[in-house]
């Protein structure tokens, strides 16, 4: 029994060490490498990017204008730029600097753009991989704001609602009791519009820090998408023309003062669309290789182009398109392996020391994930075994079991063996 408890203690130590030691090592020795900022330049007619690199080439260092020489600015053709040159080639992104530099209005492709025109036609919509329905934390209680508050500022209502198998249930937060009348009113409004319970999910932006309130989108049991708003305290329900056969998986609502798009709509087969406010029309984004489970997504709208940028941990892809008659037509696509994909010396040493590591990651809930090292981890395991072989053991059976512990867990097993066993 004593041996069993020692082995259980050793296994617990291995887990804790694998969770915390690599994290401490990363904070001390591994440089945090942000993702590359990839954008489409309307002046160069190609993609251009900013990224952090460990060893900038001489050409990039020569372009460094300040002490941040580790940041390089480059385009598809391999040309390096200074920060100011980079911003001048992205006039719709850095239009405020362009205005300060006296470069507005500017002319591109025979069209003239001033600051007001650029500001009016700029838009950014994002969808993080960990924000997708089923992967993010669902509050379970949703605030349906008053869409016509009668004042400049939006305010939270005194109630929240939740989904039940056969309706919406409003709960007064001040009294902590169900509001039966309000529940019946909103449930009946949805049913009158053809809603079939139980609902699959609710999509909305649950904050008052936005330009206006667009209400909530609710997907019913058949996959139909309904738009629910609270106007002057009364329900307003619209059955959208979105085809239930699309298999709507997620709607990322993003209310903008431009009031052109409600947000992004993701389907079960990984197609992604812009959801227009006018008629709930969908604009398909023609992407190649988009994998929402592991990629963050962003679309940047400017006066001339729609630029979609999506990336996982190592690769970033871009697609620039023009909108004509409600259809996006790609004009350029590009894939770039980010500098953060290259293994630094500190990361190689990390692999040698730690044969695996554990991490707690949030995917709706905290998930314990294991990360296996590389072949070089065998070197670390060999060194740990050599240290263990030099230690004194009294019984040969124990020796082999501890040998096996270090063999599978390297430095974690060596440390656990030293702490868990008293001989």
UniProtKB/TrEMBL annotation:
The membrane-spanning stretches of this chain are 372-391, 403-421
An example of a Pfam family matching this protein is: DUF4857
InterPro entries in alphabetical order: DUF4857
UniProt keywords (A-Z) are: Membrane, Transmembrane, Transmembrane helix
Name the UniProt record assigns to this protein: DUF4857 domain-containing protein
What is the originating organism of this protein?
A: Oceanidesulfovibrio indonesiensis
């Amino acid at each position: 029994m004593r041996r069993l408890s020692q082995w259980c203690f050793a296994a617990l130590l291995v887990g804790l060490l694998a969770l915390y030691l690599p994290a401490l090592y990363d904070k001390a020795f591994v440089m945090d490498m942000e993702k590359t900022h990839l954008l489409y330049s309307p002046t160069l007619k190609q993609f251009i990017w900013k990224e952090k690199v460990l060893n900038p080439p001489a050409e990039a260092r020569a372009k460094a204008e300040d002490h941040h020489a580790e940041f390089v600015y480059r385009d598809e053709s391999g040309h390096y730029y200074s920060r100011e040159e980079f911003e001048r080639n992205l006039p719709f992104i850095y239009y405020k600097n362009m205005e300060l530099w006296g470069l507005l209005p500017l002319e591109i492709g025979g069209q003239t753009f001033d600051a007001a025109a650029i500001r009016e036609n700029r838009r950014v919509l994002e969808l993080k991989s960990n924000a997708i329905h089923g992967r993010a934390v669902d509050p379970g209680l949703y605030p349906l704001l008053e869409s016509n508050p009668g004042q400049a500022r939006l305010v939270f209502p005194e109630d929240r609602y939740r989904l039940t198998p056969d309706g919406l249930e409003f709960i007064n937060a001040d009294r902590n009791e169900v509001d039966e009348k309000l529940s019946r009113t909103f449930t009946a409004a949805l049913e009158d519009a053809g809603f079939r319970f139980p609902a699959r999910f609710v999509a909305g932006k649950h904050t008052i820090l936005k330009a206006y309130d667009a209400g909530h989108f609710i997907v019913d049991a058949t996959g139909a998408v309904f738009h629910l708003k609270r106007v002057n305290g009364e329900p307003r329900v619209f059955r959208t023309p979105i085809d239930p056969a699309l298999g709507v998986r997620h709607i990322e609502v993003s209310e903008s003062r431009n009031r052109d798009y409600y947000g992004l709509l993701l389907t079960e087969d990984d197609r992604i669309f812009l959801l227009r406010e006018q008629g709930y029309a969908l604009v398909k984004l023609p992407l190649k290789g988009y994998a929402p489970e592991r990629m963050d997504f962003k679309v940047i709208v400017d006066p001339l182009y729609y630029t979609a940028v999506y990336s996982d941990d190592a690769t970033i892809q871009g697609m620039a398109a023009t909108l004509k008659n409600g259809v996006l037509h790609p004009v350029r696509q590009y894939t770039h392996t980010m500098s953060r994909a290259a293994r630094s010396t500190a990361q190689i040493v990390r692999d040698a020391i730690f044969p695996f590591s554990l991490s707690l990651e949030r995917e709706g809930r905290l998930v314990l994930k294991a990360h296996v090292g590389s072949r070089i981890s065998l070197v670390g395991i060999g060194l740990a075994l050599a240290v263990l072989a030099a230690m004194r053991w009294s019984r040969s059976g124990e020796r082999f079991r501890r040998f096996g512990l270090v063999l599978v867990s390297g430095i974690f097993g060596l440390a656990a063996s030293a702490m868990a066993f008293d001989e």
